[in-house]
Amino acid sequence: MFPIRDHNPSGSTPFVTWALIVANVVIFLNYWHLFQNELALNRFFFEWAMIPARVSMGEGFGGLVTSMFLHGGILHLAGNMLFLFIFGDNVEDEMGHLPYLAFYLACGVAAALAQYVTAPLSQVPMVGASGAIAGVMGAYLLLFPRARVDILIILIIIFRIVTIPAWILLALWLAMQAFGGIGAPADAGGTAYWAHVGGFVIGVLLCVPLWLLRGGTAFWRRSHGTPPHPEARYRFVTSDVPRAGRRRNAGRPRGPWGR
């Protein structure tokens, strides 16, 4: 189950969201070739990822920022950029471009610190924009809890698109991260669950002043809990391409392949 789109495109061009997506993709493509050389890749991550053990030794603090622009593979990158594309534009529209950029970076650093606190001696590099994007999702939940989001549900061979309120999707996602963090050793590698939880919580907290400035619950009543933009209507339409009928030939096929 993962989101594929929301129903409220932003009212202005989300320059920062697009720039962040481009930056993540370009950076990934610049070190993609290192995946063919494990030693070179580990050296690269040692320099630029967030490694808790290095931070505990008083070094590698730059990784708190640079790690949020690195990814461990194409699917890792694609999943994060999809979430940023869906939820980032409306949050940027509400915050403004530069405040949104500062908010994004702050959430990414806070997420890295949350993961660090759970395993300060871990030597496993942490990479990915998901902590910062979790902060964006937290802000989205606070500002637009009733926004409609389309999710793709995959059950073995069944594919179905379902529209649900944003608060259900985001609450389920947060619960999954929390349960994942409780059930997995923090220094075992894999998914940085506590970075997700920390980024999400910080995103909500940092967005509270903006929400109060907009009127708090009065903002929800005015906007009905959705972005203040016209809702996009998505529907499946029948194709205009004519359908070819099946023609039956009484004789054997002719031509150079006939036998």
From TrEMBL:
InterPro entries cross-referenced by the UniProt entry: Peptidase_S54_rhomboid_dom, Rhomboid-like_sf
Domain Peptidase S54 rhomboid per the UniProt entry, residue ranges: 63-209
GO CC annotation terms, alphabetical: membrane
GO biological process, one term: proteolysis
Main location: membrane
Enzyme class, spelled out: hydrolase
Keywords, sorted A to Z: Cell inner membrane, Cell membrane, Hydrolase, Membrane, Protease, Transmembrane, Transmembrane helix
Topological category with respect to the lipid bilayer: Multi-pass membrane protein
Location in the cell: Membrane
Segment forming the signal sequence: none
EC number(s) stated in the UniProt entry for this protein: 3.4.21.105
Sample GO molecular function, one term: serine-type endopeptidase activity
Pfam family, one: Rhomboid
Transmembrane feature ranges: 15-32, 68-88, 100-118, 124-144, 151-173, 193-213
This protein's name: Rhomboid protease GluP
Native source organism of the sequence: Roseivivax jejudonensis
Gene assigned in the entry: gluP
